[in-house]
Amino acid sequence: MTDPMAPEDREDPFVAPVAMEEDPEELFAGDRGVLDADVRRVLVRLLQRRFLLADRNRDDWRVLLDNQQVIESRLHDMFVQLTIDHDRGVAYKKQVRSDEIEVPILLRDDAYTRAETLVLVHLRTVYQRESTAGESSVRVDVEEVEQTVLTYFAESDGDTARRQKAVRKALDRLRQDGIVEEESEGRYRISALVEIVLSSERMRELDDWLREQAARRAVGLAADDSLGAAVEAEDTDREEDDE
User: Fold this and answer.
1) How confident is the model at residue 126 (pLDDT cuts 50, 70, 90)?
2) How far apart are CA 170 and CA 164, in angstroms?
3) Helix, strand, coil in percent for the chain, rounding step 5
4) Element at 131 (helix H, strand E)
5) Average pLDDT of 32-59?
6) DSSP 3-state of 1
7) Which of 116, 167, 182, 219 is in the most buried spot, having the most CB atoms within 10 Å?
8) Which residues pair with residue 52 across a beta bridge?
9) For residues 105-118, average pLDDT
10) Which domain of life is it from (predicted)?
């Protein structure tokens, strides 16, 4: 009669050891990471960049969606939240802030300058108008941006040449952030990111302020800089870009 507890018939309750040569390959000397190389790269790029765009980074976007849970877990370990907007094809991070627990701040907010915010207001207005009219792709020329945005500046902002330089510098900064894309010299396509950067509520506040300033200038009153300072300190949660 066969012994039912014979060694050859018992199920081994322990996991068989894996040969050393079958261990996951280290990516560098002393590597103790557990993520694949492509997942690590996406995690780093999320920390480096303000946005990860699906149409510009298709491979990274696929890796992000395939490994969303583990990437979110790593970010949460650093008190950073991940937002994925599938409709717009954009992923971005936000610093966790809490009054209940101590949270060390990893991401340093870097608000848009006054000139950048004024350009954003115009881009957001154009994007909203054209999108509502059914345009799937919204474009502007630098001359059009200058023509409108220059009217927002105060006399203290310098002469026309200085203001034009500020507008073009602002467009270049927004191009780096992916909010506009220069398709040809002086011709820009506005990204849907402008809706994320400048919410509808904040847009209305800024628009009301700009109208008020225009009215004050029309009757010869000095512009009110109180909200102008608020525009300069506009908190759009722009993290320092290390690229």
Assistant:
1) very high
2) 10
3) 50, 10, 40
4) helix 114-132
5) 93
6) coil
7) 116
8) 91
9) 82
10) Bacteria
Rounded CA gap, 49 and 107, in Å?
11
Q: How many residues does the chain have?
A: 243
Spatial contact of 154 and 223, defined as CB atoms under 8 Å apart: yes
Rounded CA-CA distance 91/72 in Å is: 11
Q: What is the pLDDT of residue 216?
A: 66
Per-residue pLDDT averaged across 150-161, rounded?
80
Give the DSSP letter of residue 54: T
Mean pLDDT of 52-58: 90
In which residue are the tokens 């203001």 written? 163
Q: In the chain, what are the domains?
A: 20-95 (1.10.10), 114-232 (1.10.10.2260)
pLDDT, residue 233, reads 38
pLDDT at 164: 92
Measure the CA–CA gap between 2 and 195, rounded to whole angstroms.
Answer: 75
Residue 242: exposure state from Cβ atoms within 10 A (0-12, 13-18, ≥19): exposed
Residue 227's nearest CA partner among 198, 206, 211 is 206
* Residue 103: pLDDT over 80: yes
- Are the C-beta atoms of 232 and 114 separated by less than 8 Å? yes
Is residue 184 exposed (0-12), middle (13-18) or buried (19+ Cβ within 10 Å)?
A: exposed
